[in-house]
Amino acid sequence: MQRVKTLTSKTLKNTMKKGGCGECQTSCQSACKTSCTVGNQTCENQNR
Amino acid sequence: MIHQYKSNGYNIVMDINSGAVHVVDDVVYDVVADYESCSRDELIDKLSGIYALSDIQEAVSEVERLKEAGELFAEDEYQDYVIDFKKRQTVVKALCLHIAHDCNLACRYCFAEEGEYHGRRALMSFEVGKKALDFLIANSGSRRNLEVDFFGGEPLMNWEVVKQLVEYGRSQEKEHNKNFRFTLTTNGVLLNDEIMEFCNREMSNVVLSLDGRREVNDRMRPFRSGKGSYDLIVPKFQKFAQSRGTKDYYVRGTFTRNNLDFSRDVLHFADLGFDKMSIEPVVASPDEPYAIREEDLPQIMEEYDRLAREYIERQKEGRGFTFFHFMIDLDQGPCVAKRLSGCGSGTEYLAVTPWGDFYPCHQFVGQEGFLLGNVEEGITNTAVRDEFKMCNVYAKEKCRNCFARFYCSGGCAANSYNFHGSITDAYDIGCEMQKKRIECAIMIKAALADEE
């Protein structure tokens, strides 16, 4: 690609297969307590 | 769905359904904008007055290749998945323990009304806290990581019980194959060496409340006497932050209409030596003079842009810091199940009052219609719990077609309720700020990727 720099090609739909384990942090327990900030949480799935 | 924007010299194209993010040149940027509504010939015709034919053809080919790879114009395949997902048995994995409904500060914007949550002053007993931890263990299914935040009011006003509960939680880990992650949210007034040492051993994260510059902080975070808290607290927080080692901390502030130039407060934190911080917009009734108004949004947007540029500069100079709302994990971020279901309030996450009542989250505490049960009987109000279980991005009209839906996951239910009387609506001013922060966070990734 000459004209495109891809920062991530992550296809979210692949995470439907093994996602949902729930081991990740609850967003409001991290720092916010007043906004919902999910996109910055880290995945902790061991079997991803 | 595509979201495209220009920021700080970067042309950014986000493909919402796949999660792909691209930085593109001007030709591709314009091709993407009209790709779905125009044929190839129409595109060439439309853009030929601006770009050379070969450039347009090349750009169209690149867009086509990305589309074939599922990285542009990907379909939304999650609407049915969310229904299956929501039928599942939920487990509880996080508690916000209101260890003290009392406070030694009198912050003017406090949603807990100076710590008392529309009720009476109270401290949680060890017995109530122990039952809450037992409830969490018993209702957490196979989840190993359990989160417990000591919250208030001010939790250090009931410090002995905090220590006893940490000790009790640790004593249960092995038998039940659980790992407690304790956190503490404090205003710092009562911090001392003993408390810091204990927290550095036991608390995976501490959230340190401070609003920024002295005059900003002291205006909104005074003692009950009216005296400011900055001078007492800042040296303690600096010492605490430096002693955290590998464990996390966040200096966390609230900005209001009084300091719409809040980027200066973030940078003030950095200049005080903190490197992990968050500053969040106040959530307040619109009739409060310090509440953020719609007319403030242009200035707030400008402020986020200014902060983002400075964030990049400092990063490049080797004196970078972490701003909670600019953190974004594009590669190892949450799965779609998490992104759809949001914060988990009322299902995975509960708040516990000093006397053992359960609420969907700390912001609902004291609103009797949201009382879910208690530590003795568990969840008894299953109707409210089920309402929260169904609270996801597709249940919200405003979110369904919003580019930010997989990043904010539908936003805060409490904010939605406070402004619209429904947990499946959205707090519109909050949404605008959230969208801006996501755009800034991605632009920062683009700028830092340029450096590599």
UniProtKB/TrEMBL annotation, chain A:
In Swiss-Prot or TrEMBL terms, this protein is called Putative ribosomally synthesized six-cysteine peptide SCIFF
Looking up NCBIfam families in the UniProt record yields: six_Cys_in_45
Recorded superkingdom? Bacteria
Q: Name one Pfam family in it.
A: SCIFF
Q: Which InterPro entries match?
A: Six-Cys_pep_SCIFF
Task: Tell me the lineage of the source organism.
Answer: Bacteria, Bacillati, Bacillota, Clostridia, Lachnospirales
From TrEMBL, chain B:
Cofactor(s), by name: [4Fe-4S] cluster
Q: Which CDD domains match?
A: Radical_SAM, SPASM_CteB-like
Entry keyword annotation includes Iron-sulfur: yes
Query: Which is an annotated GO molecular function term of this record?
Result: metal ion binding
What start-end ranges are recorded for coiled-coil regions in this protein? none
Residue intervals of the Radical SAM core domain: 89-322
Q: Which UniProt keywords apply?
A: Iron, Iron-sulfur, Metal-binding, S-adenosyl-L-methionine
Any one Pfam family match given in the protein's UniProt record, by short name: Radical_SAM
Task: List the signal peptide residues.
Answer: none
Report the InterPro entries cross-referenced here.
4Fe4S-binding_SPASM_dom, Aldolase_TIM, rSAM, rSAM_sf, SCIFF_rSAM_maturase, SPASM_CteB-like, Sulphatase_maturase_rSAM
Q: Does the keyword rRNA-binding apply?
A: no
Name recorded for this polypeptide: Radical SAM core domain-containing protein
Native organism is Cuneatibacter caecimuris
